[in-house]
Specification:
alpha+beta
């Protein structure tokens, strides 16, 4: 049995270097990552510039207001050429419900709360804790 072990011992170190295959390394992985990210950005840029891609709003057409009526149904006010139309949108299609005689008023711009007028958090928390006991 000892002669078999001695015969197999020189073959083992020769097999080790062939079994250790090295990958592309850190630089190769970083380069591949940059290549994939550049490809994604380039395709997004290309899609944005293609006509009919849906990323650019149509000229002369604007959604003024939208209201969900059900899971798949909506009422939408669309402005087309200075006229505002009330449309019903459902999975079955789009239906003109009414043409508005005068345009809807412009929505008020959202305001940020004044931080100086906010109530004291510590007081609100202590009041809430007293009520729950």
């Amino acid at each position: 049995m000892l002669p078999l072990l001695l015969a197999a011992a020189p073959a083992a170190p020769a097999a080790r270097p062939a079994a250790q295959a090295q990958g592309p390394g850190l630089f190769g992985a970083f380069f591949a990552l940059l290549l994939v990210l550049g490809l994604i950005v380039g395709l997004a840029w290309l899609l944005k510039r293609m006509p009919g891609s849906g990323f650019r709003p149509a000229d002369g057409l604007r959604v003024v207001a939208s209201l969900h009526l059900g899971t798949k149904e909506r009422a939408v006010v669309v402005e087309v050429g200075g006229r505002q139309l009330l449309l019903g949108v459902s999975p079955g299609g789009v239906t003109l419900l009414h043409e508005l005689p005068e345009p809807l008023p412009a929505p008020e711009a959202p305001r940020l709360p004044n931080l100086k007028e906010l109530p004291n958090f510590a007081q609100l928390l202590s009041q809430r804790l007293r009520r729950t006991r």
